[in-house]
Amino acid sequence: MEQEHILIQKNNATRDEILRAALSLFVAKGYFNTSLTEIAHAAKLSQTQEIYLYFDCKQELATELYNSILDSLSVSIDEIRRRYKKSAEQLHSLVDLLFKLAEEAPDVLRFLFEISANEFLPPNTKPYLQTPAVNKMLKMIQLGINSGEIRSLAPMLIYTYFFGIINMTLQMILNGTLDKKSELYQSQSWMAAWNTIAKK
After folding, report:
1. How far is Cα 77 from Cα 1, in angstroms, rounded to an integer?
2. Could you give the CA distance from residue 37 to residue 42 in angstroms, rounded to a whole number?
3. How many whole angstroms separate alpha carbon 113 and alpha carbon 172?
4. DSSP class per residue in the chain
5. Class for the domain spanning 63-197
6. In this structure, how many other beta carbons lie within 10 angstroms of the beta carbon of residue 31?
7. What confidence score (pLDDT) does residue 126 get?
8. pLDDT at 184
9. Where are the domains of the chain?
């Protein structure tokens, strides 16, 4: 998943610039503390009203950003599942992708980890753990359970064990608790996460 494609397919340069500006501001200031005026200024628009040519309101903008990130992640997971047949290979490739994002597009991960989607998502929206991206991760895990690579536990429990380690490591990298380049922690976190779920 290329950094420039993770936000949204490029069909309008101004729209994409608004999304990028919003991403940076939401991560830096929070959703509620970010105004459309600030987003317009960061996107180099001449006036705030130009945003309304693309989005009805700030909530719609944030929701589009959230959905675009998850859609791009879902597409990347599809590619990984086509490329690799074993669960360990698929999960390892996904971890590689997440650590690459921590280096190349850190605000994307910060948005997913730090911004509460409940602040802007419509009430009837499926929670993160029921999104297609997570469902595909669970299929990777189920593949490993079926083949004997992964312990025979509930897939969501395995997801919690595995991605709990991966995501917490990434969050510590993003907030500076772990202060070296992410690649230095990647193999350690992979081994810790995999050993937690691998069938001995």
Report:
1. 9
2. 9
3. 11
4. --GGGSS---S-HHHHHHHHHHHHHHHHH-STT--HHHHHHHTT-SSGGGGGGT-SSHHHHHHHHHHHHHHHHHHHHHHHHHH--SHHHHHHHHHHHHHHHHHH-HHHHHHHHHS-GGGTS-TTSPPGGGSHHHHHHHHHHHHHHHHTSB-SS-HHHHHHHHHHHHHHHHHHHHTTSS-S-THHHHHHHHHHHHHHHB--
5. mainly alpha
6. 20
7. 84
8. 85
9. 63-197
In this prediction, residue 12 carries a pLDDT of 82
Encoding tokens for residue 127?
Answer: 């929670």
pLDDT at 8: 42
Sequence-distant (6+) residues with CB within 8 A of 177 are none
CA atoms within 13 A on the CB side of 15: 16
Report the distance separating Cα 138 and Cα 122, nearest Å. Answer: 25
In whole angstroms, what is the distance from residue 83 CA to residue 77 CA? 10
φ, ψ (nearest 5 deg) of residue 174: -65, -35
Ordered mean pLDDT values, 10 residues apiece, the chain (200 residues): 45 87 96 96 93 94 94 96 97 96 94 91 88 96 97 97 97 91 89 94
Contact, 144 vs 175, CB < 8 A? no
pLDDT at 124: 85
- The answer to whether the CB of 73 falls within 8 A of the CB of 137 is no
pTM to 2 decimal places:
0.88
